[in-house]
Write a structure and sequence with these properties.
Layout (H helix, E strand, L loop, with lengths): L1 E2 L1 H19 L7 H18 L3 E2 L3 E6 L4 H6 L5 E9 L2 E8 L7 H11 L3 E5 L1
Parallel strand pairs: 1-2
Antiparallel strand pairs: 3-5, 3-6, 4-5
Helix pairs in contact: 1-2
Amino acid sequence: MIIQQTTIREIARSIVESTVCDVYERPAHPMEDHTERMTAEIRRQLENSGQFVQRKRLAIVAGHSDLDTIRKYLPRGYSAKSIGKADGVERILIEGYDDHGWTLHEYVIPSLASGLICAKEVT
């Protein structure tokens, strides 16, 4: 059985909400920051214990496009970041996890293509 990233995130959110909110009246960092850190830690522990977890999907955007435009096409669970320039063109990495039909191959890449943005999965 593969443990989905959404399951890991929900466990993390539950832990954060039940602990951080009780301990602090005003957390120093937004709840989302605590949840992201907890999600990463739970995932790391699951992987180290030999559990199968959903793999992160990665894609590179080829061509001339800006980061803000690409982010508008992405569903929850996916993000984009600049990884530098090559030949005067900004290289953008898309990363995330498939969730409830919002998949890299069946949604993200076709959605970007509808805006004439070419992306290719990398492994």
